[in-house]
Structures are given as C-alpha cells and as structure tokens.
Amino acid sequence: MTVEKAIFAGGCFWCMVQPFDTQPGVISVVSGYTGGHVANPTYEQVLTHKTGHTEAVEITFDNDVMSYEDLVNIYWQVTDPTDAMGQFQDRGDNYRPVIFVNSSEQRTIAEKSKAALAASGRFDKPIVTQIETAKPFYPAETYHQDFYKKDPSRYALEEAGGRAQFIKSHWHKN
Prior knowledge:
Elements: E1 3-9, H1 14-21, E2 26-34, H2 43-47, E3 54-62, H3 68-78, E4 86-87, E5 90-91, E6 98-101, H4 104-119, E7 130-133, E8 137-139, H5 147-150, H6 152-160, H7 163-171
Parallel strand pairs: 6-7
Antiparallel strand pairs: 1-3, 1-6, 2-3, 2-8, 4-5
C-alpha cells in the first residue's frame, strides 16, 4: 500500500466529498480549509473572505489502487474549470477551483492534465483552475464532515444548484 494525499478545491466542500469518497482506493476524504494565512480557521472566519482560505477536500488514498492522475481526472469532471471566482451557486474566492499539489510529481501530473483538458476543445472558455503548492490543511468542523451522508436531501439540493447539470452537459457527451 502506497498512501498519499491529494488536496482539491472546487466550490463548497460539501459537494466535493462524495465523488471521491466512493472511489476504490480512497481511504478518507476530509472537508477543510487551505491556502490561507490564519492557523486553524473556523467556518465563520473563512466566510469573511479575510483569511485567504479556500474550502477544499483532503483525500487520503492508496496510490497502488487509485492513482493521483485518476483523482485529477475525477476532479475535472466535478468542477467548472473555466470559473475562477467560485463554482456554480458558490461564489467568492473561498470557492475558487484549485489543485493543491504536495510534490513535484503531483505538479507535473496536474499541469499535464490541465494542458490536455485545455487542448481538448471541450470548453469554449479558458481553463482557469489554479495549480498551487499545498499549504497547511485544516479540517473543518465536525458538522461539515460527510455531509452527503448526514443530510442526503440537502446534499441533493446543493447538487441540483448547478453542479449536476454542468457535469451532465460537459462530461456525458457521446
């Protein structure tokens, strides 16, 4: 078993857990905050847009079962890589799309994947998702963890807010 971590931001972390949590080789998916300048921020602090943090998920995975490249490919399918200031109904810099890399190998994989997506012609707008060096990751409060399991009806409403339609229109073409 080769255990690694990946950190992705793509809108509200509530909607970023389930697509990864259900994959083989994924050990855990934790909702949290990263990329800011305040240690151990709270949800309320992050919402002020004064801490510099982005809502993100930290994925612990077995690279022998699920590769980092596979996780990046899933990431592209659950985010809008053309929207720099949020995702779907989630607006603001704390919802921006970012791949936070933990190594030069992860950076190479993410940059190559981003270039391939840009060259694919799938999107009419430029791919603006940032690739940044990982900063400390702070787990969110307990009530934010495993939201899709704790409140499935609210999760369904959040998904209906644009993410599900976007995914269907951009990734399920014949």
